[in-house]
Amino acid sequence: MTDAAQEPAQNPRRDWAWRRTDSPVGPLLLAATQRGLVQVAFHADERTTRRALARLEGIFGTAPGAEIPHLTLAAAELAAYFSGVATVFTVPLDWSLTSGFHARVLHALAAGVPYGSVVGYQDLADRVGEPGAARAVGAAMGANPLPVVVPCHRVVASDGGIGGFGGGLEAKRILLALEGVLPAPLF
């Protein structure tokens, strides 16, 4: 969890909705506004879901409402991705939960690291014009509000290791294997 200094600026009150969906990396919480998908959270058990929903309610200034079409599209695209059918996401994204350097890094990642490829933390720092910021790129990956869709699992360590991952290293291995970057787990 980030501290208050790292929280995005308070957003204006707006409508949003959420749902949980199953995946090979465990249950995911999806939240969307009328602008687009705003959050994907791993390990969406009851406790994680309650915490995420309370945070979003505070940010958006209102309780979640009825279904938003972006949720249906996001769930369908994630199911297609996990089944190996889709390699890109077209669901609109609401970037309001990130800003500054983190937003620049996440936009560069989303636009420039396609399915089946990886990038190093340092390479991504270079792409956003911050050559000394490899560790800060790692922090941006850890704060990514849209993992899988904005593919922070594709960022790896320069020493050949897979690096860290907010969803857990096993989830990162599964995602990289799905995309053909790593061999599939034996069991």
Main features:
single chain, 187 residues, alpha+beta, 3-stranded antiparallel β-sheet, two-stranded parallel ribbon, 6 helices, 5 strands, 11% strand, disordered N terminus
What does this structure look like?
It is a single chain. The chain has a three-stranded antiparallel β-sheet with strand order 1-2-3. Strands 4-5 form a two-stranded parallel sheet. Helix 4 packs across helix 5. The longest helix has 15 residues. A hairpin with a 3-residue loop joins strand 2 and strand 3. It is globular. The chain contains six helices and five strands. The chain is an alpha+beta fold and 187 residues long.
**CA radius of gyration:** 16 Å
Give me the secondary-structure category. Answer: alpha+beta
What number is the mean pLDDT?
91
* Tally of DSSP β-strands: 5
Give the terminus-to-terminus CA distance: 31 Å
Report the total helices: 6
Low-confidence stretches: 1-9
